[in-house]
Design brief:
- The complex is a heterodimer of chains A (426) and B (173).
- In chain A, 8% of the residues lie in helices and 45% in strands.
- Chain A is mainly β and 426 residues long.
- Chain B is of the alpha+beta class and 173 residues long.
- Chain B has a domain of 109 residues: OmpA-like domain (60s Ribosomal Protein L30, Chain: A, 2-Layer Sandwich).
- Helix content of chain B is 40%, strand content 14%.
- Chain B contains six helices and five strands.
- A four-stranded mixed β-sheet of chain B has the order 2-5-3-4.
- In chain B, strand 3, helix 5 and strand 4 form a beta-alpha-beta unit.
- In chain B, helix 4 crosses helix 5.
- Chain B starts with a helix and ends with a strand.
- The chains are: A mainly beta (426), B alpha+beta (173).
- The interface between A and B is large, with 64 and 43 residues.
- Strand 14 of chain A pairs parallel with strand 1 of chain B.
């Protein structure tokens, strides 16, 4: 049954931006303990050089840390399908799984990559898929193939086809950038000589809310990726910051100081209509984040002294419940997509570490050994946390798997990179 | 090459601003609409006798200080800086046309958004003391830059101490 070909056509995701490619470099620091041995054969009729699809599939699986990707550069000519596969050879090389495929140019000039994921021992196909996209989408085609393989063999959704956003800073120039999750195809959404912070993808990945200081104090802006159109949605007296999308993408929780100190309000995502104050405290309330059902808000507050993380029903009623007790400073809550885990930053002995809390048991775990971590964000499959930190006086991004085994670094050639935020599944 | 790219990016942004200005649908900023008439500059003919709107450059003592420094995650004004706030309160009282922006800043550690809130509290703490001395609300604005505009780019306690700060910035200075 799996042998029936299933075809997918990639949506064209436009991004009205200008920018350079691959200014950010990904480096694998540690791998998983148990890696699945797999070989990705060169695709027949694949495109030449660095535009070839099958090597990108292999690179994706390698950087997930969960696969040991065997070298197949000696396979010539590349078989177009299973008939040309030397099964004994790959059994001897201890490959458990094998990917074989080919690339065609369609009459509409699109590319189509077909592949099968095979069990080497049984020679049974686990996947038989085709992905079609424009020639410019060759990397995205490869990422979707890697996602399908990852999901089939690990049971978790792949995140290779997702995108990330982050801020770069060189001198006083800040840029809000979007890139593929491997750091390639970096594009600039906004460049300013004033700070930009707190980018947040809309749930559908089509808009970005962020805080810009372009008017010399913080305001909340929503920018549509496809057109570049920008709209100020919160520009009240004082400070406007910390946008958090409601799960349906129609509203934003924001932090305003229009009535005094930082408090959390609810506004419409298009900036129209009434403003509703969600909470009232004598302290700083900030960094709101909604649960997936939109009914609960997690946030940071110093209402009990130092900053701690709380949660409260959006509909009011009960007092906020404090969740963090392990330190005098706990900030920046973000929830896993299944709502079972929370990542945040905690200060211990003067060091700021990314933490992971199991919200069912309340158990916590430090995920890093760096000292200036901030802005943790879950991958949309919940298996990785990306955050920013400082290494040798430079701001860099880092990724850690939620089991702590797999670690990667993303660095720019010069300057600092910070405020990472992982986009939704596309 | 990189310069070209940045130039293009900036051009693109400016073009976006001029052709499709970001639409403001929420309440406009107070400082845009609420500039009180008292702020009107002295008559142009009276240039030589224009009252000073800020303490003269090089003035000594507490009035020469423009910054109040804080402990980590704190916004209380320490005793040693109370004379600074008092001195500027006195100046503002005797110069009702003077205006200040109180700019709250934080060191680089911890959350950017929490630091934005903390910087606001730092600026507000100075504003409260000045208000208690009788300085008019219309003479004061507050803004927080959080940890986004550090004076000292270093990553050590000396740099951090320098960056946990409220600056008193006089208009026109």
């Amino acid at each position: 049954m799996k042998n029936n070909l299933i075809r997918f056509i990639l949506a064209w995701i436009a991004l009205a931006t200008l920018g350079a490619r691959a200014e950010i470099t990904l480096e694998i620091v540690t791998q998983g303990a148990h890696q699945i041995p797999i070989v990705v054969l060169p695709f027949a009729n694949d495109r030449p050089g660095d535009k070839a699809i099958s090597p990108i599939v292999g690179a994706d699986l390698t950087r997930s840390g969960l696969f040991s990707v065997l070298d197949a550069s000696d396979v010539k000519p590349a078989p177009a399908d299973i008939e040309g596969v030397n099964w004994d050879d790959w059994r001897n090389r201890h490959a458990d799984y094998l990917v074989v495929g080919n690339v065609q140019e369609l009459p509409n000039h699109h590319l189509e990559a077909r592949f099968r994921l095979m069990d080497v021992n049984t020679q049974v196909a686990r996947l038989n898929l085709a992905f079609e996209g424009t020639p410019e989408q060759y990397r995205m085609i490869a990422h979707h193939i890697a996602d399908a393989i990852f999901e089939n063999l690990t049971g978790d959704k792949g995140m290779f086809s997702t995108r990330i956003a982050y801020i770069t800073k060189q001198g006083e120039q800040r840029s809000l950038k979007v890139a593929d999750s491997d750091g390639v195809n970096e594009q600039t959404m906004l460049t300013a000589h004033e700070p930009i912070i707190s980018p947040r993808w809309s749930p559908d990945g089509k808009r970005m809310a962020y805080v810009s200081f372009e008017l010399h104090r913080p305001m909340v802006v929503v920018q549509t990726l496809a057109t570049g159109a920008r709209k100020i949605v919160a520009n009240f007296k004082g400070s406007n910051s910390a946008p958090a999308w409601s799960p349906d993408g129609t509203r934003l929780a924001v932090v305003l100081t229009k009535d005094g100190h930082s408090q959390i309000y609810l506004i419409n995502a298009d900036g129209t209509g009434p403003v509703r104050r969600l909470l009232s405290s004598g302290g700083i309330d900030t960094e709101p984040v909604f649960t997936a059902d939109g009914q609960t808000l997690y946030f940071t507050s110093d209402r009990d002294g130092g900053p701690q993380i709380y949660r409260v029903s959006v509909n009011g009623g009960e007092a906020p419940q404090r969740l963090t007790f392990g330190s005098t400073y706990a900030v920046s809550p973000r929830l896993s997509p299944d709502g079972k885990f929370m990542t945040y930053v905690q200060r211990d002995d003067g060091q700021f570490h990314v933490m992971l809390m199991d919200l069912t048991s309340g158990q916590t775990q430090a995920m890093t050994d760096t000292s200036l971590d901030e802005s943790p964000t879950f991958a949309p499959n919940g298996k990785y946390i990306m955050y920013s930190t400082e290494v040798q006086d430079r701001g860099i991004l880092a990724i850690v798997s939620t089991d702590g085994r797999i670690r990667q670094k993303l660095t720019t050639q010069t300057g600092d990179v910070y405020e990472p935020v992982w986009g939704p599944l596309q | 090459m990189k310069k070209t790219i940045f130039a293009l990016a900036v051009t693109g942004f400016l073009a976006a601003c001029s052709s499709t200005p970001p639409e403001t649908t929420s309440a406009p900023a107070a400082e845009k609409t609420a500039a009180p008439a008292a702020a009107a500059p002295a008559p142009m003919v009276a240039e030589p006798v224009k009252p000073a709107l800020y303490p003269p450059k090089g003035v000594g003592g507490a009035l020469g200080e423009r910054s109040i420094y804080y402990d980590f995650d704190k916004y209380a004004i320490k005793d040693q800086y109370k004379t600074v706030v008092d001195a500027h309160g006195g100046f503002l009282l005797s110069h009702p046309d003077s205006k200040v922006t109180l700019q709250g800043n934080c060191d680089e550690r911890g959350s950017r958004e929490y630091n934005l809130g903390l910087g606001q509290r730092r600026a507000d703490s100075v504003r409260k003391v000045l208000a208690a001395k009788g300085v008019k609300d219309s003479q004061m604005e507050t803004v927080s830059f959080g940890k986004e505009k550090p004076h000292n780019p270093g990553h050590n306690e000396a740099a951090w101490a320098e960056n946990r700060r409220t600056d008193i910035v006089y208009k026109g200075e």
